[in-house]
Amino acid sequence: MNRLQHETSPYLLQHAHNPVDWYPWGEEALARARREDKPILVSIGYSTCHWCHVMERESFEREETARIMNEHFVCIKVDREERPDVDQVYMDACQAISGGGGWPLNAFLLPDGRPFYAGTYYPPEPKYNRPSWTQVVQHLAQTFANDRGSLEEQAERLVENISTGSDRLLRIEPPQDGSQSMMEQLRAAYDGARGGFGGAPKFPMSQALELLLANGLLTGNNQDVYFAGHGMRAMLDGGIYDQIGGGFSRYTVDAHWRVPHFEKMLYDNALLLRLLAKLQMAAPDPRYLQAIGETTDWLEREMSLPDGGYRAALDADSEGVEGKYYVWNYEELEALLPPDDVELVADFYGITREGNWEEEHTNIPYRPGSLPTVTGLPPDVAAAKIKAASKLMADARRQRIPPGADDKLLLQWNALLVSGWCWCYRATGDDRYLKLAQTLYDDLGRHLQKDGQWYRNLTSGRLGAPAFLDDYAALAAAALDLGEVTLDLDYALTDARTLVDHVLDTFSDDRMTMFYLRPPTDSELPVATQDFYDNALPSGNSQMASNLYRLGRLTGAERYTDRAERMLKAIGGAVSRYPSSFAGWGLTALLMQQPERELVVTGPGARAAARPFLSEYRPGLLIVASEEDSHDLPLLRNRYLSDLRYFVCENRSCHLPVATAEAARQQLN
Buried (b) or exposed (e) across 579-589, using 16+ Cβ within 10 A? Predict the structure, then answer.
């Protein structure tokens, strides 16, 4: 066993038995490279990464391949989920070299940590128009030995490219019709036939759908509202949604949402819960409610950790086979279900004797049509039969060997789930979701905060690196969301403000516009990185812009509002021209362009009186309730506190107070 046996990361432990002399990322490995003047090979992935598993089996487990790696390089393994800063620097290098990226990410560094080459998966033999892994390793080792000067030049160019990448992005000129251009581009990219954005592989891109929904509601554009719902319903009908057990896979390998890459990530499900809740508030649909409930059931059943919080992910593979846990053949249905129900259930889930997937006789459940048209039975009869059969299938599936699990408790991903459940509470009024959100929020403080310091993750009882920008931003957003749904101002005025102020003081300075991923002082990395893209996860910078905007509106503090405006102005060109990659930014920009609207309820029973308004999705509406004069906030000054009153305000100018919810709603409308 190599040094990784002493780590807690499931991904690193998967490689502890490799003959490669792996180090974890840290000073021991970096010091050895400097001392021996030896190049570094950094291999980055995560525990549920399918192609990471493939490359391990094909290359890292081979004695001869390991011998070559050990002879020529200091070899380091990195879990990208524990060290997003390391991953980002070398992913930027990979994208600069090849125009693309992915995992496993394999980067080759000079002894001082500067990258000179990076790529992703390499096969054990030359194929797929790629050289073999051993060819790549041997060639770069020989070049380092015989032509080091060329690698020094390449490293210098790469570091310069990475260092200036943020500036280039911020120099993109916005079109004259910024917000209009942003929405036109987003509509043009929408797949009207199949739902969502792009072709194969196809990702949920929930933030882009949220942007469409918000714009549609704010402007009355019904097409945007339709696109948001159409995209979600397409996923709910497809194989990306686990029809039997609930929850969403990370993406599909096809453009029709049928064939998932079966790994399930906590962050995808957190973000999709938020979208489902907003859609339910805007355009109620029983399918949204069903998916909210089923996904939450799955999270509690399969993702919850014994001491609180939720694990990072479930693997795509079980028993070494991708998707084996999730797929079915027709004979299994015949053995499991009453004879009269087999054909009905098979038709409903698209299951055939031949199979609907690449594996012979293997089926991925999806929904080829609506329930009445597929079954031909009265809806209530068909629904009862499908529900009973699905329960039998779910119970039977739980007897199989489950996929592997990554038990890291990650701060950012769990904070996103807090926010997701806050929105579910707003959409349903079900206290279950509020209790889940509050309990998880408290668990994060109990597990990931020590002596005033927040940490990125907890794995097997060991805390990871100090929290990154993404962690603080997501946690502050969770506090703001909890404050909104509980109408408890302390979440925002104490928790969120403390977190945001820490980021302002630590991750940048007053001269800067954006924030670093980690505090730049004493970094062992060759570049201090900033990330702006809203990809599968919202970027820390876009969430911070949103947090600053929300805090500024609530507190009236110009330092928050001004910083948010500076950030949006700087990134505005990129957001307008590439909205699907900056959808979180786009939503904040959209809200900042609208009149600032507030509903302020004061007096005895204010919280109970304000609560029904939470179930109405009005993007940008700030709801504040106070039953006592205990907060020195602009929205609460000089308000009547002896009687229940509703104040509807726009741009800090308020209508005359009214005494009924109906009258307040008329003013809002």
Answer: bbbbbbbbbbb
Name beta bridge partners: 107.
42, 118
pLDDT, one tens digit per residue, over 537-580 is 999 999 999 999 999 999 999 999 999 999 999 999 999 999 99
Given this model, what pLDDT does residue 178 score? Answer: 64
Cα 273 to Cα 201, 290, 348, 487: the distances in Å are 22, 11, 24, 21
Quote the CA–CA distance of 90 and 116 in Å, as a whole number: 10
- The pLDDT assigned to 630 comes to 61
The 10 Å Cβ neighbour count of residue 316 is: 24
Q: Which residues contact 577 (CB under 8 A, 6 or more apart)?
A: 172, 174, 175, 181, 185
**CA–CA separation, 599 vs 613, rounded Å?**
9
Helix H or strand E segment including 645 = strand 645-650
What dihedral do alpha carbons 57, 63, 68, 72 form, nearest 10°?
90
**What is the b/e burial string over 553-572, where b = at least 16 CB atoms within 10 angstroms of the residue's CB?**
bbbeeeebbebbbebbebbb
Identify any residues that bridge with 562 across adjacent strands, giving them in sequence order.
none
Task: Give pLDDT, residue 629.
Answer: 67
Report which DSSP code applies to 598. Answer: E
How many C-beta atoms surround the C-beta of residue 57 within 10 A?
A: 12
pLDDT at position 638 is: 76
Q: How far apart are CA 148 and CA 39, in angstroms?
A: 10
The DSSP line for 137-172 is HHHHHHHHHH-HHHHHHHHHHHHHHHHHHHHHHHTP
Q: Which residues contact 486 (CB under 8 A, 6 or more apart)?
A: 434, 438
Average pLDDT over the chain, rounded to an integer: 94
Statement: the pTM of the whole predicted model exceeds 0.85: yes
- Amino acid identity for residue 283 in this structure: A
